[in-house]
TrEMBL record:
Stretches that traverse the bilayer: 12-31, 51-68, 77-95, 101-123, 143-164, 184-201, 213-231, 237-261, 281-302, 314-335, 347-370, 376-399
Presence of the UniProt keyword Transmembrane helix in the record: yes
Entry protein name: Uncharacterized protein
Sorted UniProt keywords: Membrane, Transmembrane, Transmembrane helix
Organism: Salegentibacter salarius
Statement: the UniProt record of this protein carries the keyword Signal: no
């Protein structure tokens, strides 16, 4: 029988993060020295390991911890977890050599079914005392968004076999998946954990306030997908819907941040200084995410983002390496599922911030015609290497601790 506990669950997630970070360094080395590999294939391995290995496993483990804190993993969960890891390892060892082909598609499909089984397990087995809480409503919505996002991958197969990769529907399917992963599944799951924190610290988000926040948030999440269609020069109604989505999100997050600011002293008192510092950093990164996303409601900036890949990469890394990953590290440390050394955390943060500055600098160079300094790509590799060093440090410490 497979033996697993929550700490081992999270160590496996961090191991995938380390692998994804190392693949990210390999991708940046392509611009420094000849690499005997297919760049696009490595991108597929990097992105799938990062999103589905690190973020998915970390979030699903935390959700399990919140809803089933005093129980061991039942056999059904262990089998789902095992099948999920088989699918992840299958993608990790097939994508670099063949890209999207028979083997990698089989393992990607297996992962989708595993995510459905996980969602069904949580929704069927969550104890009654959690079901009417504010945090569970957010987590449940997040899980449904994860399932909904999979329409994108399912559509890709049909589109590739009929319309081909040159079709706008090919890119729209990818954008659909990424939007409902980054801006729905990840976001609402993290907010669900934040509301669990509120409840633990006895911070009361009034039911009427929460209902308004919840509907504003979900309406904004759905309508803001239309921002991803601007590059197709769609009918004017698409621009209006995308803009409305941004406005609704701004109202929702204004309400959330106003609540946090009103209760910051209680938050500070209820958390360790280190965990409170992480929460502040994550909050700042969330504000940055909202600002960047809001800019794309303006057609000029939407077109600029579509034409300038560095801005897109910068935004995706801002959300993934910054907001999402730092929130996960903070939650895991708060829940005592990992030991997060301060020096490793700040090393990671330094690598993230400097590499982001370099990525956005390159985007500004291409946009504004600014001077481009030599050795840029080598410096980017060296700075980015701080991230896998920090993640490896965190993983190594926690593996030794669990021996």
């Amino acid at each position: 029988m497979l033996r697993l506990d929550l700490k081992a669950h999270q160590n496996i997630a961090i191991a995938y993060f380390l692998l994804a970070a190392l693949l990210g360094i390999l991708l940046r080395l392509f611009y420094v020295t000849p690499i005997a590999a297919n760049y696009k294939y490595i991108i597929h391995a990097h992105s799938h390991t990062a999103l589905l290995g690190w973020v998915y496993l970390a979030l699903t483990g935390i959700i399990y911890r919140l809803l089933f804190p005093n129980t061991k993993f039942p056999k059904k969960y262990l089998y789902i977890f095992l099948a999920t890891n088989i699918s992840l390892l299958g993608m990790l060892f097939s994508f670099p050599f063949q890209g999207y082909a028979v083997v990698s598609i089989i393992f990607s499909t297996l992962f989708l079914f595993c995510s459905y089984l996980y969602t069904g397990f949580i929704l069927r087995n969550t104890p009654v005392e959690h079901r009417h809480t504010q945090y569970f409503k957010l987590i449940k919505a997040a899980l449904w968004y994860m399932v909904f996002s999979s329409i994108g991958p399912w559509a890709l197969g049909a589109i590739m076999s009929t319309l081909g990769k040159a079709s706008i529907w090919y890119k729209l399917s990818i954008y659909f998946y990424l939007h409902f992963q980054y801006n729905a599944w990840f976001l609402l799951a993290i907010l669900g954990i934040v509301f669990y924190l509120f409840q633990k610290l006895r911070l009361t988000f009034q039911p009427r306030e929460f209902k308004r926040f919840f509907y504003l948030l979900n309406s904004g999440v759905i309508l803001s997908f239309f921002l991803s269609t601007y590059w197709t020069n769609p009918p004017i109604v698409f621009y209006l819907l995308g803009g409305l989505g941004v406005i609704l999100l701004l109202f929702a997050f204004y309400q959330l941040f106003a609540f946090i600011l009103r209760n910051k002293n209680q938050l500070k008192a209820g958390l360790s200084p280190f965990n409170y510092q992480i929460l502040k950093i994550v909050g700042i990164l969330l504000v940055g995410k909202i600002f960047i996303q809001s800019l794309t409601a303006i057609p000029y900036f939407a077109d600029l983002a579509f034409e300038n890949l560095d801005f897109v990469i910068g935004y995706l890394h801002w959300v993934f390496l910054g907001f999402v990953s730092l929130a996960l590290f903070g939650f895991l440390n708060w829940l005592k599922l990992i030991k997060l050394p301060k020096k490793a955390f700040y090393l990671y943060l330094s690598g993230f911030l400097i590499s982001e500055a370099l990525i956005f600098y390159k985007g500004l160079v291409l946009w504004l015609g600014l001077p481009f300094f030599s050795r840029y790509f080598l410096i980017l590799v060296l700075v980015s290497a701080l991230i896998p060093i920090a993640v490896g440090w965190i993983l190594g410490l926690n593996l030794r601790k669990n021996d």
